[in-house]
Design brief:
The protein is of the alpha+beta class and about 350 residues long. It folds into two domains: about 90 residues; about 230 residues, BirA Bifunctional Protein, domain 2. It has eleven helices and nine strands. The strands form two sheets. It has a seven-stranded mixed β-sheet. Strands 2-3 form a two-stranded antiparallel ribbon. Strand 6 and strand 7 form a beta hairpin. The longest helix is centred in the first third of the chain and has 38 residues. About 25% of the residues are buried. It holds the Pfam family tRNA-synt_2d. Its cofactor is Mg(2+).
């Protein structure tokens, strides 16, 4: 049995030396040291030995097992190192190659304009409010002095979902909701921005979906002069300190009196050009003093409280500020267009 163990050791060591990968090495380990391996089979015959022979053969068997185990571990370490070196060589990176450019995104032009306007009014004490885009007929129309059958409803061609639900045609419902929330008990000074929807034919200056920003200030002793001061500050901050404003009489159902605000044309500085159609002025928003009926429906006493409201389209502001001549540019997601206004 001694000779048999020594022959088994020599055979195992030769195979371990010749192994070329870890899989082969594992197969050799199982073949010689496993439960059904060659060494185990030899040791099962120790029962036939005499008491004197068993310790001697046992010592030889342990030595053979240790020798094979040590050889397996050394070979495994060499093969692992070799495999790692081959992998590193295969996955080597040429650090002299130029890097791949990374496309860096940025805020959409409309998002930037909206945030700029919001920051401007926050600085003047306004808070930002939000409201649902799917609105009720009451808050979209009736609470804003537009009862059923009012002819001014035709000014806003509406997407109706049901007889009572619709896609909001302006952000003014947020003003009505905010005043209703305050229950006529405290002042309101807020702006709101968001998407609005109207059944309109898309062209260079119109879209069925666009954005609006509206503002509302309700308190005691609020006057038209306060509105003019706020709008003058807005125009100068947004378009430059040299800009002048003018207010022209207009009509909105939810304000009385109502005005349209124009700014002096930045192209010709008021002298008249093709951009301002020779007038020297460009219309940018509508505004007015909150109608007493609107205050009353929201729970405010119009004999005590007064206020003003204004509304503007961020698309129009962006078009005037940056010279964009087609509103559809904001929605087609042409990367070439958007990159022009990305601020790093």
């Amino acid at each position: 049995m001694k000779e048999q163990l020594e022959a088994l050791q020599s055979e195992a060591l030769e195979k371990i030396k010749a192994a070329e990968n870890l899989k082969e090495l594992q197969e050799i380990k199982v073949a010689y040291l496993g439960k059904k391996g060659s060494l185990t089979k030899v040791l099962k015959g120790m029962g036939k030995l005499t008491k004197e022979e068993r310790p001697v053969v046992g010592e030889i068997a342990n030595r053979v097992r240790e020798s094979i185990t040590e050889a397996l571990e050394n070979k495994s370490e060499l093969l692992e190192k070799k495999a790692l070196e081959e992998q590193l060589e295969k996955e080597a990176i040429d650090i002299t190659l130029p890097g791949r450019p990374v496309n860096v995104g940025g805020p959409h032009l409309l998002t930037s304009i909206i945030e700029e306007i919001e920051d401007l009014f926050i600085g003047m004490g306004f808070e930002v409010r939000e409201g649902p885009e799917v609105e009720t007929d009451y808050f979209n129309f009736e609470a804003l002095n537009l009862p059923q059958g009012h002819p001014a409803r035709d000014m806003q061609d509406t997407f109706y979902i049901t007889n009572e639900l619709l896609l909001r045609t302006h952000t003014s419902p947020v003003q009505a909701r905010t005043m209703r929330e305050y229950k006529g008990e405290k002042p309101v000074k807020m702006i709101c921005s968001g998407k609005v929807y109207r059944r309109d034919t898309d062209d260079a200056t119109h879209s069925h979906q666009f954005t609006q920003i509206e503002g509302l200030f309700v308190d005691k002793n609020v006057r038209m002069s306060d509105l003019k001061g706020i709008l003058d500050t807005f125009a100068k901050k947004m378009f430059g300190q040299e800009r002048k404003i003018r207010l022209r009489p207009s009509y909105f159902p939810f304000t009385e009196p109502s005005v349209e605000m124009d700014i002096s044309c930045k192209v010709c500085n008021g002298d008249g050009c093709s951009v301002c159609k020779g007038t020297g002025w460009i219309e940018i928003l509508g505004a007015g003093m909150v109608h007493p009926n609107v205050l009353e429906m929201a729970g405010y006493d119009p004999d005590i409280y007064s206020g003003f409201a204004f509304g503007m389209g961020p698309e129009r502001i962006a078009m005037l500020k940056y010279g964009v001549n087609d509103i559809r540019q904001f929605y087609t997601n042409d990367i070439r267009f958007l990159k022009q206004y990305h601020k790093a």
